[in-house]
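Per reviewer request, we include the raw input and output of the structure prediction for the construct analysed in the revised manuscript.
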Amino acid sequence: MLHNGNVPSKKKIPFSIKAPLQEYLQEYNRSTTLPVHYEDLMRYTTSLPLLDQEGNDTLWETVYYNQSDERDIHDALTYIYALLKTDGDVSVMEHLTVSRIDFCTFGNTHPFRVRIINRMNDNYDHFYVKKADASRVYGLELEDLLSPNSMMYLVDKNTLIEEHIVGIPCDDFIKRNLNDTEFNQIRIAKEFIKFNERCFVRLLGDMRSYNYVVAVTPDIEGSQFRMRAIDFDQQSYEGWKSFYLPQYFKENNPIIFLGMGHMSAQTLEQYQLEERSLIAARVKASQSQVADLFEVMINDQISFPKKVKGLRKELAYHHKNNIFLECENMGSIVVTNIKLLLQKDFKQSIAEQFFKIKN
């Protein structure tokens, strides 16, 4: 669990998207003009609790609109889905319709979840409409650039559109899927080590079991597992190191215990190094875009001075390197952490070769 009595801020403070980040989003086709915004969806007239298959309250509410508004909102959301999935090819809209709009009553972002259904085969998909937050946008971009997962999202002013990330919520996965073959248990533990490393390298925090999902793919022998973050609000926001290591959250303990039972310290280090090597390769493949993103990030504010001072002090102690004490904001800390972790086990300087950033 988290050390030193630290707990996350009760409410994460959102940060607006400033002009430099907006220009970056425009340059890399993340910015667009939307026909409906978050505030428009807040004009619902009534709502009903959404229950799961067992009759339990999901803390989501299905919302309904005036008949005069509903058609326009549904048409706009169908068009947004086409923007997100087919780069605006509206021909796909002919067979698509909005089946349901749900509103989340808990958490920081209070998102809307839109269910789109294909009338031809009754297949459905989801996407989310959220209030834009610079921290979350940086988290989405870092996920897209430094992880094995591509991210589809769009931004227009204060509205953020996100694709649905498919997978089993890890809290459910832990309850139902850990009693597996030893072969699969080893693969689960291995993936958690790699997921833990990805989060720490780029400083994505608060990865309790309900903030990420597990995608399971049947393989020739056993299954393959991929852990994917679904909550990016805590991208380099809080002020202590252990918040960025999923291994310290008690909710993840059942997977930690799997690893302890199946992994040696040498094997763990091997998987950590393997993941850093993959991140370095991704940085190299997207060198220009990574540099552009960090050029913006190190000049932006996505946390508060007290949190910045706390995190840079802990990371300086962790890495035994006082270069962190020179960081003035979270963007600088993230860049410095990535540089050091990628250099740690490589003879050539990853930072000098791949990061052309003034830090």
